[in-house]
Write a structure and sequence with these properties.
341 residues, alpha/beta, TIM Barrel, 2 domains, 7-stranded parallel beta sheet, 3-stranded mixed beta sheet, 14 helices, 41% helix, globular, binds iron/sulfur cluster
Length: 341
């Protein structure tokens, strides 16, 4: 089966009544103008495959703003432009992102009618205090009730969270709290976006006044590693980890844990933890760790960081490829001995 692909269409800041502390959607999306229905049709014509078999891998994704809070007529026009491509099988469905307080039965009826299959909620945090001081304008109760309704209607539910938001210093604990509450809700997918400070946002002014300290890249990696393990244990699919590199974002970034390969760093950190755990009960010395070749760079770490850390702990490790190993499996061999550990 072909890999899942999104045809992403950004609807920047359209209809959003809020100004969340971290948000400048226009810069994140790199798009200034809202897309017209004609533009949606043109984009779908151009990028969606012509046959239904290939179309089954595609979703048309309206991202960026609060899709279900935009002007109703405009929302309908966008859906009407996209829906024919779902009906003819050129896409398997439509995915939208929105605010938790912009979901009702009436809205879900409309989305169902126009081929929407997945709804993502920008929950961001499951602490009311954090939501309040970041000017989110919705509550944790809104996340619970919107999620319940979305699941009741049979849509795929996605939840987004932002570790490192302003409002609490114990970043790790409150990220874990939020993840635990997500797990209670049982979404199909999650996105994890460590909080970044963008120009002309409330977070920027708090940061300039010394009232907010963002996560470092290393802290974000450690927190995300814990979250990834929690969601993996529950079979909740993580569809995004960190914002993707784009010029709009890099131009407006003031501070925060931005790294173009955040996901890779997190997975590499998880591998380091596993290697450390396995090696801890063994004598210091020289070891070979075998992994599938696709995991080689994660096992080694960026700029060989995992190798360096393990050496500091007394283990001189060489990473070798062994494609008989699958997934994240690995074997450890003590140099000079034949036996696998
Ligand atoms: S609700 Fe969404 S689009 Fe509106 S300001 Fe907040 S993050 Fe940005």
């Amino acid at each position: 089966m072909e890999k899942h692909k999104n045809l992403s269409i950004f609807v920047p800041h359209e209809g959003c009544p809020n100004q969340c502390s971290f948000c400048d959607q226009k810069k994140i999306s790199g798009t200034q103008n809202p897309p017209s229905p004609d533009y949606v049709t043109q984009l779908c014509e151009e990028f969606l495959p012509n046959d239904a078999e290939k179309g089954a891998s595609y979703e048309i994704a309206f991202f960026g703003g609060s899709f279900t809070a935009i002007n109703r007529q405009y929302m309908l026009e966008l859906l009407q432009a996209a829906y024919p491509f779902v009906k003819t099988g050129r896409a398997r469905g439509i995915r939208v992102s929105t605010r938790p307080d912009a979901i009702s039965r009436e809205i879900l009826d409309i989305l169902k009618r126009y081929g929407v299959t997945a709804i993502e909620l920008g929950a961001q945090s499951m602490q009311d205090h954090v939501l309040k001081v970041n000017m989110r304008g919705h509550t944790v109760a809104d996340v619970y009730s919107a999620s319940r309704l979305i699941k009741e209607y049979g849509f795929s539910l996605g939840l987004q969270m932002m570790p490192g938001l302003y409002g609490r210093d114990d970043y790790m604990q409150y990220a874990v709290d939020t993840a635990e509450k997500f797990i209670e809700i049982k979404p199909d997918t999650v996105r994890i976006y460590p909080t970044l400070i963008l120009k002309d946002t409330l977070l920027e002014s708090l940061y300039q006044k010394g009232m907010y300290t963002p996560l470092t890249v290393q802290q974000a990696v450690e927190i995300c590693a814990v979250l990834v393990k929690m969601f993996n244990r529950e079979n909740i699919k993580i569809i995004k980890l960190g914002l993707h590199a784009d010029t709009g974002l890099e131009d407006s970034l003031v501070a925060g844990p931005y790294h173009p390969a955040m996901k890779e760093l997190v997975h590499s950190h998880i591998m380091l933890e596993k290697f450390t755990q396995s090696l801890e009960c063994m004598p210091h010395g020289d070891y070979v760790i075998c992994v599938n070749s696709r995991k080689h760079s994660q096992a080694t770490g960026q700029k060989k960081s995992n190798i360096v850390v393990l050496a500091q702990r007394g283990y001189n490790v060489t990473i070798k490829d062994d494609n008989s190993l699958t997934g994240d499996n690995y074997t450890i061999i003590k140099e000079g001995e034949k036996q696998c550990i």
